[in-house]
Amino acid sequence: MIEFSNITKVFNAGGDGQVTAVSTVSLTIQQGEWCNLLGPNGSGKSTLLRLLAGEMEPTSGDIRVEGKSILRDDAARRARTFFFVEQDTRANLVPSMTIEENLVLALCLSRFPGFRRVRNKDRRAKARDALARFGMELENRLDEQVRTLSGGERQAVVLAKALVISAPVLLLDEFLGAMDPRTGPKLLSVAHELAEAENLTVLSVSHNLDHVMMNGGRNDRVVLLREGRLVQDLSVSEIPSSQWLLQQYEGILQSIQERN
Questions:
Q1: Fold observed for domain 1-80+200-260
Q2: CA dist., res. 198 & res. 171, Å (int)
Q3: Which helix (H) or strand (E) holds 7?
Q4: pLDDT band at residue 199 under the 50/70/90 scheme
Q5: DSSP per residue over 8-68, as a string?
Q6: What's the pLDDT band for 165 if we cut at 50, 70, 90?
Q7: Contacts for 116-121 with beta carbons within 8 Å, 24 or more apart?
Q8: Is residue 208 pLDDT above 90, yes or no?
Q9: Mean predicted confidence (pLDDT) in 134-151
Q10: Full-prediction pTM beyond 0.85?
Q11: CA dist., res. 209 & res. 147, Å (int)
């Protein structure tokens, strides 16, 4: 269970360019939930993910996992719990390395025994099993360099890394943003299946409302943010349609425009 307790994040506090990215947000995400964070640019969605990952610290408030504060945990320690997936796969992959080498590197950084203690065939089998779940035949292309892969294939390798290291929480920041209309939904569907099968907790930032509604399961939520504040927290099953969600989203945009 992840708990944000009155989290505020202010950039350049006290300066001329002071910006409050997140303001007194309290939010609890249960294990196994898929929580969609929605809102216009500047609403604090990605900031919440980066606060969890340890890339920045809150100005005030607390973040707890299983009841324990993680604010003193550095990014390396948090990486055992949170796996960050961004739109740009270069943050997670080494393009000049092969698919297998990228996955072995992930194993070496996890609690799974390092490659010197694991036989090659065991490493390869673990990599193949993870890749096979995406239905892209990547398990038969382990010796190909990552830079030769398509955008969707690279993101599949990134998600496979999360599987081989058994990361319990996925942080998805517009991870489908650069994909074509056919590949994106397919990979999202697989990600939902994997999250349900592995009981993963997911926090996902997206601007694509159709993606949010497409795979809505019983554990899916939508959290709407406006200018760093939480304005709505709904179960996807409670949302009547993508059009209704769009109206809520546009209402937030209109209120910001009227205010400015």
A1: Rossmann fold (3.40.50)
A2: 15
A3: strand 2-11
A4: very high
A5: EEEESTTSTT-EEEEEEEEEEE-TT-EEEEE-STTSSHHHHHHHHHTSS--SEEEEEETTE
A6: confident
A7: none
A8: no
A9: 94
A10: yes
A11: 30
Can you read off the two tokens belonging to residue 125? Answer: 């089998």
CATH 3.40.50.300 in the chain, residue ranges: 1-80+200-260, 82-167
**What residue spans of 91-219 are helical by DSSP H?**
99-108, 120-132, 151-164, 183-198, 209-214
| Domain range 82-167, its CATH number among 3.40.50.2000, 3.40.50.510, 3.30.300.30, 3.40.50.300 | 3.40.50.300
Take residue 198 and report the two structure tokens written for it: 């592995």
Three-state secondary structure call for residue 203:
strand
Record the tokens describing residue 183, joined without a space.
Answer: 């590949």
Q: For the chain, how many residues are written?
A: 260
- Residue 82 confidence (pLDDT) above 70: yes
